[in-house]
Amino acid sequence: MSHSIPDQEGNATPEDASASVTATPSVKYRNYVRNCALLLNDAMGPVIASSISPMKIGTQLVLINAQPCEPYMGFVLAFTIGVDYKDMPPRRCIPSQEHKLRIKFPRGKFTHTIEEASPEVLARFPDGKRKGRCIVTVKLHSDARVSVLGFGIPFANHADPEVDGWVNKNTPIIDNTTILDVLCQDTFVFVLDSTVVDAQKQWKESDLAPLFTYPYGDKHSWDKVRFRELLDRNKSDEKFEPAHYHDSHNSHLTAVTHSVVQDTFWVSEAAREIRDYKVSGYFVPRDPDSDKMYYVLIRLLKGFKDEYDAAWRRLIKEEKFSLWIFEEKTEKHPKGAWDCLIVDHPEHIEALRDHRMSSDDSETMEELVLLTRRPPPNALARGPNLSVQAFGSRSIADAAFKKDENHIADRMALHRCLMLGSGFHDWMMRTKSPDDVSEAMAATNLNDKPAVRPIPVVNLLDVSDDAYIDALVKEALPADQVRFRQYMVNRPLGLGIITAGPGFGKTTALAAATLGMCATVGKVLCCGPSNVSVDNFADRLNRVTRSVSARYNEGKPEGDNSRSRHQFVIRAFKINREVEAALHLLAKPDETDMTFLSRGWGRKTKWQPHLSVAVWMLVLLRSQAKCVWTLHSDDSEWLHRKQRTLDTENHMSLLRDIARGKEDYKPQFATPIKKLLTKLAVELVQAADLLCTTASASTKEDIFAMWKENLARGVAFDEAANMDRADLADVWGNTLLPCLMGGDPKQLPPTVMTRDEKDKRGNLFNRFSHDGGISALDFQQAAGYPVYRLVTQLRMGNGLFDWVAELIYPDVPLTYSSLCQIDQPKFALGHNLEDFIRSKYPEVKAPPANKFWPVFLSCENGRVFVDRNTGSKQSKDQVKVALDFALDFVTVKNVNPAKITIISPYAANVDYLSRMRKQPEYAALEGMPQASSVDGFQGQENDIMIVVMGTAFPQPGAGFTSNPQRLNVMLTRQRCGLVVVGHIKMPGVVDDGEEDEGKGKGKGKGKRKGKGPVKGKKERIMTLNEEGEMVWMVVTVLKEMYKRMYTNGRVATVTIAKLIKPLKARQLCVSQRTLPAIHLPYDRYLKLYVARSGPVEVLRTLWRGGEKTNGWRDGKMPSAGDGRTRARAWKREDMGGLKEVARGYSSVEGSGS
User: Fold this and answer.
1) Which residues of 600-631 are buried (b: 16+ CB within 10 A; e: fewer)?
2) Pairing between β-strand 495-499 and β-strand 739-743 as defined by DSSP bridges
3) Strand stretches in 166-236, DSSP E
4) Where are stretches of biased composition, namely Basic residues (predicted)?
5) pTM of the shown model
6) What is the DSSP-derived secondary structure letter of residue 328?
């Protein structure tokens, strides 16, 4: 929900009548906003603020019914912030450059009068454009006071010290009257730019909507039964509006809790129902000579998938399932529980060729094919049940702020204000920590001058060693060093936000800031929304701490006690995984494949060796394993001391000898060694200066939870724009530890799996999907919190970010660093790529001098399949084009394949890429990183990126590649070059009559002049959505990106060989209730038309250039005639073998094949 004031004609409708005490669903509540002037004492008193005459403070009288926040009558004071965009949040969160205080009159505790303005008053405001003005006088009851939203939000206006002083220093505005004096009045006088009749009609308390509360109670701890009852009782087809501030703690907790619960709870309930639904099935050996692997063919009644459609699509995205096996349907307990996977495209599996469902069965049944394996004989348990606690608490607060229990309670109150996003007025106006809101309201005596407590300001570079801070600040660009230092030394509430687009160095800046915070307050817990983000953050922290120490230690000899030490960085995974990895490396020190923990059938682990606990243990043991490094002389003193201890301890002798190759590892050593390693792992974690792990692990893993509660003195989050607020609260706690966030709101937001799915009655499963999409970083930016924004591109070669900057970051002037000039040796690979493209595809135009530009390989005749079970798009043709391109480039230019990465938005393409790379013909690509999904690759980069779009037009369409945030990530992972493989002929991109969008009759129909998108207009095309339905989809950014590539000559056409196969009668079948379009793999298509009164009637059209034949006149399909039962079969040479059309079947088996 925006903080901006609604338009004067805006309407606000209650989202849910059940959430309101007296709201009626049919009633619409209007907002009322009018410019006015605020006067002191009476109508002839001094003018404090005015929007009807020139003043530095603007004001408006308002009546706001913007739910889910509390409706109110009051006024707004607006102060100009300034024009320095570097210190401003992005426009996405704050639509204006004004700092606003929203003053609410207490509902039911004030009276007001409205009367005509006298000539003397009108003479004071001569520029009125309205027909009349009036005087509004508001009188508060004796026990009442106004409440203020936005008070205390950090504010700066360097261009106008007077305004800055009014807000920050409470200096007098006029006649010794300050803002606080104004807010503490019991009488408020306004000159309103409105007639008396208009004001009396529209600004009255009876027009306020009923008080709004979410209908989910005030208990938010995990209770499945309670949540089930609440969700069943409050179903609706309307979503709650997103709220960027809250009026109460219960409102805040409800939005944060239910945005997570409603995203997943219904899926859990559906999974339970599906688990209890017993079906028949049979087994087919995968290998006739083995009894370990089987295909399982499950027959489901038609309608099963429709019954659980929304949940089914979610559940099948899991990597592994459990297949419960019963001998009889009446049994309550399964005989076996086998791991299994869903098989995509089973029609292509040779072993199942003779197991296709008959046409008779297909009328009443659906088929699901699984791949399962027989578990080992002793595998009885599938793992322990873990108890999840949604929200944690700190037992020991930050030592820098914790003095006594009262101080902790006060900081907790301040933290709650911060999380509400509505300002700090109540906290700043009281002298102690009240227990509830009513106590806070009574804390200030209106008859006395108010005593204002300043919000705490933290210096995150508060280190006595100035030389270290100088070395740290030099991690920033020279032009940013002063700004970076100023931002870090003056952080209100200890909160810092660093934001920038991709390639601008925000992770490096966040790492430098985190090291400064660590040097100031002590140990820091570092988190991210995904394992990849935590990996990147840990690596950057390690590199920056070594860079800073090297800079600081220049000229100092080895052994000098004044040398700076590296901060001890650990990238921590589950301790049992770390011990398992260490045992494996002790047994196989020559191991080079670091995915060894992912081998086998089980769930893939995200464990990586770099900076892990396992490898740190082996470093201390002086292991000979290939992935182990030696301690640096400037590493943490604790590490050197611990290594010396391990060198001499007798009980560690066996472990030492195995690690150093003096003793062979034997299985019988596993138990005693595992105990030693577990103990050593715990010691390492406790000694870490910077512990990097996921939010989930910080709660579920006991040792990490202990570290968070007892040792952490600050927290830092990378990719915070991709992190939901529940994870933020889980890690940050509630005692206002110093906190740093880094991220980009214009990249991927938090994952919300349940958005528009509904039950059979049309009720939404998740009414808080909008709130779930508000990230931890978004929420604080929406409150107006100052950010440190980076504005210089540091990674991509000059030109590679041009079009993304124009389309996605139009509000930020693009500047390339000198590091991005492409005449440098590090961009040699980009020149090789450009030379290769120009020689292979002569039609591709060269980019401007001293620039790189992306190139698009458009696959003509390429096929894209949509899997019926998973909905994932797969284009084997585009995958092959991408791999062939990479292979030719590596071979011709002798390029290291490790410098190339292929990504795709669709998992089916990623899986096919991984399988195709194993073919002998692609042996030269060995060493190329594994293919990845776009979402999984956020935060990573490589020299050359190849993107497989996996889409085609008009069908299956753009899918979620049209999402600007996902597109942003997809097109910005490169350093030297970007190659996009897909289909360029999106409607409106290519000047081709068959591809143009919006063509129609009449002059000017479907045409638009100009090259850019129409400002404020969202361009749409008809395309296939994720549910397989034809819908209008907004594709403005994707379309404009395609246009830039096409109009600048950066498109090469790759023609896919036409594989024309005969279609047999059994392959072409339709029922009376279907109207499918079957796309043949060549430049013609056949449509099936069903007559209502006859079983089937098939009409055909062939397209060759402008020729139209066989039953089509003027481009229109003929009618079904009189409905006579008839079926026609044509024999024609160019139909590729189509001989007959069959009737009486209920599925289309050959479509797309």
Assistant:
1) eeeeebbbbbebbbbbbbbbbbbbbbebbeeb
2) parallel
3) 187-192
4) 1001-1018
5) 0.74
6) S
Mean pLDDT of the chain: 78
pLDDT surpassing 70 at residue 932: yes
Q: Which residue from 912, 1078, 903 is spatially nearest to 344, judged by alpha carbons?
A: 912
DSSP letter, residue 1113: B
Strand (E) or helix (H) holding 281: strand 280-285
Q: Is 730 helix (H, G, I), strand (E, B) or coil?
A: helix
373 neighbors 339 (Cβ within 8 angstroms): yes
Which of 106-115, 561-570, 676-685, 953-962 is predicted with the least confidence, judged by mean pLDDT? 953-962
pLDDT tens sequence across 55-65: 899 999 999 98
Instruction: Give Cα separations from 1074 to 1069, 1086, 1112, 1152 (angstroms).
Output: 10, 15, 21, 16
pLDDT exceeds cutoff 50 at 1093: no
Q: Provide the token pair at 590.
A: 């020559």
Q: C-alpha angle with apex 841: 839 to 844, nearest 5 degrees?
A: 105
What does the block give as tokens for 403? 């003095």
Pick the closest to residue 773 from 788, 790, 755, 757 (CA basis): 755
Report the alpha-carbon distance of residue 963 to residue 967 in Å, rounded: 6
The answer to whether residues 828 and 1049 touch, using CB atoms and an 8 Å cutoff, is no
Q: Collect all residues with Cβ–Cβ distance below 8 Å to 486 and sequence separation of at least 6.
A: none
Q: Which two tokens stand for residue 174?
A: 């006029």
Contact partners, residue 513, CB within 8 Å, separation at least 6: 460, 484, 488, 496, 498, 716, 740
- Note the pLDDT of residue 1060: 47
Q: Hunting for tokens 């600007």 — which residue is that?
A: 964
From the list 600, 508, 595, 588, the residue with the least C-alpha distance to 547 is 508
**CB atoms closer than 10 angstroms to residue 244:** 21
Overall average pLDDT of the 702-727 stretch: 90
CATH ID of 801-991+1021-1055, from 3.40.50.300, 2.40.30.20, 3.40.50.720, 3.20.20.10: 3.40.50.300
Give the integer Cα–Cα distance in Å for 766 and 237. 10
Mutual angle of helices 613-620 and 670-687, in 10-degree steps = 100
What are residue 816's phi and psi, to 5 degrees? -95, 135
Are 194 and 34 contacting, i.e. CB atoms less than 8 angstroms apart?
Answer: yes
Q: What is the CATH number of domain 466-790?
A: 3.40.50.300
* pLDDT tens digits, one per residue of 816-857: 999 999 999 999 999 999 999 999 999 999 999 999 999 999
Contact 263, 752 (CB under 8 A): yes
Q: Which of 626, 623, 630 has the alpha carbon at shortest distance from 652?
A: 623
In the block, tokens 């150093």 appear at 660
CB 135 within 8 A of CB 190: yes
Q: Does a cis peptide bond (omega within 30 degrees of 0) precede residue 956?
A: yes
Cβ atoms of 443 and 452 within 8 Å: the answer is: no
What is the rounded CA–CA span in Å between residue 503 and residue 99? 31
Q: Which two tokens stand for residue 956?
A: 């299956």
* 891 vs 1084: which has the higher pLDDT: 891
3-state secondary structure of 177: strand
Helix (H, G, I), strand (E, B) or coil at 687: helix
Q: Out of 143-147, 370-374, 573-577, 1097-1101, which region has the weakest mean confidence (pLDDT)?
A: 1097-1101
